[in-house]
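ok so I'm stuck.
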Amino acid sequence: MLGYDWPRLHALLNDLPIGLLLAAVMFDLLAVITKRPGFRQVGVWTMLVGAVGGALAVLSGLQAEEHISHGDAVHRVMETHEQLGLITLAVFGVLTLWRIVREHRMGARERALSLVLSLVGVGFLFATGVYGGKLVFEHGAGIPTKVLQGEIQERTKGHHHDAGEEHEEVTRDSAASGSGSGDHVDPPGSPPHTH
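replied:
not stuck anymore, here's the structure
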């Protein structure tokens, strides 16, 4: 798949539906605020494309789950992420079909209900993203164990981008004292001390 495995494909497909579904709700809000029906039409089509993208993201996520090495902690977060993703897809899928069928016949109350459900969908969309972020940033899900172990070793070397010159000083001090890359390295700005 063009160099993409299921976890990478899932990561690739996530952003577009999030942006489109949020934009669709924003267009609907703009239609209410400005009283311009053109925004509603753009909202319907944006929601349709976002819902299709959301379906692709969910399908790729279900496949990614089968291809990611994980333990119990990751599995629990993954299950919550999956449930929220399915709920989000259901909310926006129903809303999209509703809007396509009823868009030109909706009264004020029906349109208000549609907008409220869209905002509920945004809440589920946000929660889905939060749990997806937990999978990656708190548990390293999708990162092969060998790559993760290599990254942990690299991080213990004391490389600091936020220190600039201080990083060079730490490197020079380490070289002068004969300490290797596995030795203790103080964070930037630490007062000098003897070991």
